[in-house]
Amino acid sequence: MVINSRFFNRSELMGFIVLAAVLFVILPLTLDVFRLNLVAKYLTYAFVALGLVLCWGYGGILSLGQGVFFGLGGYCMAMFLKLEASSVENTKIQSTPGIPDFMDWNQITSLPLFWQPFHSLTFTILAIILVPGIFALIIGTAMFKRRVGGTYFAIITQAVAAILTILIVGQQGYTGGINGMTDLRTLKGWDIRPDHAKVILYFVEVVLLFACIGIAQFIRLTKLGRILVAMREQEDRVRFSGYSVANFKIFAFCMAAVFAAIGGAMFALNVGFMSPSFVGIVPSIEMVIYTAVGGRMSIFGAIWGAILVNFAKTSLSESFPQLWLFGLGGLFIAVVLAFPNGLSGLWADYIQPHIDRLFTSRKSKAGWKDNSVADGAPAE
Amino acid sequence: MFGDYSLGDLGSIFVMQGFAGLILFSVYVLMALGLAIIFGQMGVINMAHGEFMILGAYVTWMTSSFFQSHLPSLFSGYFFLAMILAFIASGALGMLVEWVLIRHLYKRPLDTLLATWGLSLMLQQAYRSVFGAREVGVELPQWMLGSLHVSDSIEVPINGVFVMCLTVLITVGVAYVMYKSRWGRQVRAVVQNRIMAGAVGINTEKVDRYTFGLGCGIAGVAGSAFTMIGSTGPTSGQLYIVDTFLVVVFGGAASLLGTIASAFSISQTQSTFEFFMSGSMAKVLTLLAVVGILMLRPQGLFALKVRK
């Protein structure tokens, strides 16, 4: 595959540096551990938003079921952590020691078969990637091979999210029900609850996020990314040119699912629990909104969207719980009606030109022209 | 599991379960009819449909409280007035929303989804601020309480029968409007070919606005009927929205007959499953079956060939 001459153009490079500086240096130095942990929670949604940029912004496939993959990844991680927290010594008082507490409460006397492999960390990490990936592969193959797309796909993914939530809530003995899996303690004997562990986990997460940004950027710049854009704009022409549209769509959907699952796994680690309230329809649509607000066409924009909307959610719902839903609803409508490319679109239209004027040189002009689809830097 | 029951008991259980399915069917049909018009005919994904329904339910609740305190002598008939008011309130709000929001988004169906989801959040919060977070239930008039004894072991609740009759009436009304009236012909013409419909002199913007209004108005009536069998809270609408979309998609988006057929099959499947297993598993299996069938037959049960 042919890669463009440079991995980032100049404005993207700036976006990259700003994001890296904020996440690696500024936030850890200025925030206390509690707030840093909140940022870590917001960043888990940034993974989902990143996947949605590929799948929705570039591929044109709106999935309203990203919560499913976020949840699958999160539950895989949480199952491992829960098993470790439910060792025989820790659960002596139960009628059956060595199984998670919620199973004991639900009169289950032995560990179910599908829980067994989650004793192994290697298996868990593989499962975090593979379970959502294969699930997305199945849904994607069934849908895209039959040329189901657009609104129908959105509604069916939504139904899948509803099904999974009802299933998790209903099968309390196997999944922890509506409360989810709580009281996660250690990872391979390493306590994830104290402050220094939270800081380390935050950095692990940021590194993973940048790895995912690298993958997404790589996909965007290769021929693959161009086919995705072409598919979104004129699906039939791509098909007539001899490409298998369905396979590219399946690929984009699976990538988005895997990113979301990594986010979910980091959520379980950072926040210390996992529950069905992060799986269903409402969180899935909220994840789409983070992407839309940040800019569905921009990798960095979507990440800022996830951070800023969540930040606004926390601060507004702390101080004005009444106003929050009005604000969020208004934000949706405003994004759709007034600025469909989100914050990054605003940035590219109003702020970027001024910055470009400061640095005008022949080289940067060329770089700006050959990447008209991309717009990078964040809006602060 | 059947060993403990006699054959007669089993028969009555199935009849009762079938009847419970019919009530669910009525709710689905009432909600899905409005959505079938908005989504099926106009291609707008209205995520706020449940909130329009809840508006109808709140209007009914207010009417019943008004009659209770001011006109207790006419209380037994309040429901008919409430239904008309619910239709007008939801329909008017629907037309306003179409004018402010939806008409800018006809070419971008996925964006209508996001915008109407935002709208639904705002409406939910508005209901919570105005009516309180607690669920409200209307007082039923005397004649609607109790149940009909069909046989010794079979009883059907009167309010359920009433809701079903109402569903039949509304369905017939909608079918008449859509397939027999001049206005319905215009709506169908716009659906089949918007540009040509405009070219032969149909005011497509006006048709769109009234169609959206009609869909929302029917949702209001659905909400009104819903108060007969359940209580209403600010988030009740959201519980039904995915089911309703599935009903419409499963039936074949543009077909009213398909909507009814799919509402019937989904509700009967669910209430039959409920007899064998827990409610949540019944729901999961039903939805899984619907999603599975949709994967095999994406155009739904009754597909209408439309040139896009």
Explain how this protein is built.
The complex is a heterodimer of chains A (380) and B (308). In chain A, 71% of the residues lie in helices and 1% in strands. With 380 residues, chain A is mostly helical. The longest helix of chain A is centred in the middle third of the chain and has 27 residues. In chain A, helix 1 packs antiparallel against helix 8, helix 2 runs antiparallel to helix 11 and helix 8 crosses helix 9. Chain A contains 16 helices and two strands. Chain A has one domain. A two-stranded antiparallel sheet of chain A has the order 1-2. Chain B has a domain of 208 residues. Chain B starts with 6 loop residues before the first helix and ends in a 12-residue tail after the last helix. The radius of gyration of chain B is 20 Å and the shape is globular. Chain B has 308 residues and is mainly α. In chain B, strands 1-2 form a two-stranded antiparallel sheet. Chain B contains eleven helices and two strands; from the N terminus they run H-H-H-H-E-E-H-H-H-H-H-H-H. Classes of the chains: A mainly alpha (380), B mainly alpha (308).
Largest interface: A-B, 41 and 39 residues
Question: Distance N terminus to C terminus of chain B?
Answer: 52 Å
Assembly category: heterodimer
**β-sheet strand percentage of chain B:** under 5%
* SS class of chain A: mainly alpha
What is the residue-mean pLDDT of chain B, rounded to a whole number? Answer: 83
Number of DSSP-assigned strands of chain B: 2
| H-E string of chain A | HHHHHHHEEHHHHHHHHH
Q: What fraction, in percent, of the residue positions of chain A are helical?
A: over 70%
Biggest sheet: strand arrangement of chain B: 1-2
State the distance separating the first and last CA atoms of chain A.
35 Å
How many discrete domains of chain A?
Answer: 1
Give the strand order of the largest sheet of chain A, numbering strands 1, 2, ... along the chain. 1-2
Whole-number radius of gyration of chain B? 20 Å
Estimate percent helicity of chain B. Answer: over 70%
Query: Which overall shape of chain B is indicated by the principal axes computed on the Cα atoms?
Result: globular
Shape of chain A: globular
Radius of gyration of chain A: 21 Å
